[in-house]
């Protein structure tokens, strides 16, 4: 396939997936380790870890579809 715009969609899809995976692992791992080591965590930390988990899942799930399928088709 010819690249007209110069964007590397496969690299963007991989980078987005691994960024989402990293956010997901940091969010879930921190919550599990935090509860195991300290028992109860403050509410703002629970909210932060939950938000990292949800945002990481959303980025990791949507990035391959957006940059791997949709964007190359619209070019």
Reported for the largest beta sheet, the result is: none
Shape: elongated
**β-strand number:** 0
Mean pLDDT: 91
Structural class category? mainly alpha
Topology pattern, helix = H, strand = E = HH
Figure out the total of helices. 2
Helix content: over 70%
Q: Tell me the Rg in angstroms.
A: 17 Å
Distance between the amino and carboxyl termini: 11 Å
| Binned strand content | under 5%
Low-confidence residue ranges = none
Structure description:
The chain contains 2 helices and no strands. It has a domain at about 25-75. With about 80 residues, it is an all-alpha fold. Helix 1 packs antiparallel against helix 2.
Summarize the structure.
The chain has two helices and no strands. By secondary structure, it is mainly alpha-helical. The N and C termini lie close together (11 Å).
Features:
single chain, 75 residues, mainly alpha, elongated
SSE blueprint and pairings:
Layout: H1 9-38, H2 43-74
Helix pairs in contact: 1-2
